[in-house]
């Protein structure tokens, strides 16, 4: 809710005319409560969970040979009913955990100072805040995820997320309800440290989920724009973590690769990459490949 009745009042308070984006924001938000604006996240998340995975899911169901070469684990094929079951389970969690969590977490959003007011932040401010949010989330998520791979954490909680050893986009938010709640903390820490505008917060929640869907897509497309982000993990990186499963001591980070590099938890993955490269070289020299599987079925390297 904005404290101005008209655009002229808002312009007088700002001491300048409103930009086009600010006028749009005024027209949309002036009479809506901050709580209602915050709850837009529920609709955004519903749309992202339902729509963003669809293109790659269709590609995967149709098994187009043109795209098959980009599938990370080409031998694993989920049927339409298995794919739909994953979506149904995610929606169950969405309506009973994710949605209610959004509804009740508003006081903390208010407390940390997420604002809906004018002026709107500049593009640079939004960009830099998003960078901070991604970095903070990546670091905290890394340690929580690593903890969840301990005996207790894995058996009681994290095992659910690893039911998909070859993940699909719908499986990105597929997890135990406790994991959904716990991983809300890393998502919230960045905005708590550097609070921004509600629009930045919406963008953060949306981009983080879109990124998670991409890394769970099961496909490593060479043309994906995220390939240009420095230290970005991507689908191949996280897919390996799912492939190894509960035993995995590799690739814990959610977005970037630097945490796994610094703490030495990317050794299994690097070893596999090297082995795969040698195998490809072998194929070029006439040696038969490993049954068409992207990964080589050796034990993941324990790093600690
Ligand atoms: Zn895991
Ligand atoms: Zn995952």
Automatic annotation (TrEMBL):
MF term (GO), any: C-4 methylsterol oxidase activity
GO biological process per UniProt: sterol biosynthetic process
One Pfam family it belongs to: FA_hydroxylase
Keywords assigned by UniProt, alphabetized: Membrane, Transmembrane, Transmembrane helix
Signal peptide: none
Membrane-traversing stretches: 42-65, 86-106
Subcellular localization(s) per the UniProt record: Membrane
A GO term from the CC aspect: endoplasmic reticulum membrane
Fatty acid hydroxylase domain segment(s): 131-265
Primary localisation category: membrane
Similarity comment: Belongs to the sterol desaturase family.
PANTHER family: STEROL DESATURASE (PTHR11863)
Name this protein carries in UniProt: Fatty acid hydroxylase domain-containing protein
Annotated source species: Populus trichocarpa (Western balsam poplar)
